[in-house]
Structures are given as C-alpha cells and as structure tokens.
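I have been asked to look over a protein record a colleague put together. This is what I was given:
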Amino acid sequence: MNLEALREEVLQANLELVRRGLVLYTFGNASGIDRARGLVAIKPSGIPYENMKPSDIVVVDLKGEIVEGKLRPSSDLATHLILYRAFAEIGGVVHTHSRNATVWAQAKRAIPCLGTTHADYFYGPIPVTESLDASEIEDAYEAHTGHAIVKRFEGVDPLSMPAVLVAGHAPFTWGASVAEAAHHAVALEEVAQTALHTLAVNPESAPISQALLDKHFFRKHGRNAYYGQAKA
C-alpha cells in the first residue's frame, strides 16, 4: 500500500468513529501501519473530524519522527507505536472515549462475556489494565499507557482479544487493518452497553459457557471458521 492509500484508509477509519457515534469533537484517534516500510499514519492532534483531509494525516516512523505532514500527530502516538512494536500481527489501532466502554474503564472492571454478541468478536472478558502510578502519569504518560496494555496482554493473543480498557481512561482496539480496528471499536461499544443493561436487568447474570464462547468465536475466526462467504 502506498502512503496516499494508507492515509485515505486511516482518514476513513477516523470518520467511521464519527459515523458510529463513538467520538465527540476531537476525541479519539485511529492509525494504520505500513509494515514493509515501518511507517505509521495517524490522525493529527486536535483537528476536527469534519475538516480533515487525507493530506492532514501525519506519517511517522516507528520512533515517532515525522516523515510526511505539517501537523502534529495525535498526542496518543506513543501508545500506538508501542502497540505496533509489541503486537506484530496488527495493522491498525483505534482509541475512543465511547461512552459505555469508558464507563467500564473508569470502573476498572473487565467486561464479562455475557452473550454471543460479545463472543463473536472477543474471546473472553475484555481485560482492563493496571492503574498507572503518579510517576508514570507525570513522565511519558502515553508511553506508559502503551506499556501497561502490553503488560496486561502477556500470554494473551491480541488477535483473539482485539480490545483493552485502560484503567481510569478509555478503550483501545486494534485489528489486521485500521478499518478492522474501527470495526472492533464499534463492536466493543455495543457489547459494553449490552453488558451494562444485562447486569441492570439481572445483577446475577453469569458469563456464557466455554462451549458457547468457543462455538461463536471460532465459527468466525481461525482456520475452521465457517461464518460468511469463502474468500477467493
């Protein structure tokens, strides 16, 4: 993919967050990576979505140095770069402050897998990171956020669990592409809301069985998936 195409894809992923009601004003950001060249395209900081053009998308290397673009990249750039370096399989990262997922993040509670809608996208409860201490917040806050996510995912497959709740903050999602990362952000917000409503109706609701989780997740993911149409 050339940089023009990558910038367009990243722009459209950012606009998808607006279309789906996951961001307000200049909240949130999406990025995509060209693995072959080690370049990341990301939303510029503080720019209203309705004004953005592909040329506004900032291109940086994996050290965060600007390669193309006249605007400052998202303030969350360091978190995105750490995730790209740690999770070699991912091609896009999205960060939102979507209402219901953020409620769970602020409560510092993992989202339990209470139904099959959740299981279609996420293999188990959506994890929450440990809280950052004062020194981590004061110095290199965004980098420490990335490190907290990576630490929480030790022993966890990021493609089977393409979402995380940063304690006291908000969610991040990712995927094989930035479009998929945005799709996961939409799915995360839906399951966050349905979990809240389920527990409101019945506070004693329990997670679904392992058998039902396996059936719904693996019929859509992995080598034996059978949901949808065969790929050419």
User: Anything to note?
Assistant: The radius of gyration is 17 Å.
